[in-house]
Amino acid sequence: MLKVDKVYLKTPTKIAILDHERKRTYVLRKDGLPDAVVWNPWDKRAKEIVDLGDEEYKHMLMVGAACVEKPITLKPGEEWKGRQELSAVPSSYCSGQLDPQKVLRLG
């Protein structure tokens, strides 16, 4: 089971992650996945991930769409569809331009 650092319930279908250093915004669009999770392996777990360098955890953050509050349970023959799309776009956004009621706060 994946360990996560923070779970956000009932999140918007579009989430923006601002990278001020690289002047880039990562946009997560999701359907059928009402929640979101944020995770970083930190030092000990980073060493267990074969394609992640021992120090690379300092420069990464995983944000993903999820169904945490109401997990999806299917009976035989039932179908369910969920979708997550991640894109990166150039940005000069400042956090002051965002609606504070719609910002997911870490911590």
Automatic annotation (TrEMBL):
Pfam families xref list: Aldose_epim
Entry's Gene Ontology molecular function annotations: carbohydrate binding; glucose-6-phosphate 1-epimerase activity
Coiled coil: none
GO biological process, any: carbohydrate metabolic process
Official protein name in the record: Glucose-6-phosphate 1-epimerase
PANTHER family, sorted: APOSPORY-ASSOCIATED PROTEIN C-RELATED (PTHR11122), GLUCOSE-6-PHOSPHATE 1-EPIMERASE (PTHR11122:SF34)
Domain of life: Eukaryota
Gene Ontology CC terms, in alphabetical order: cytoplasm
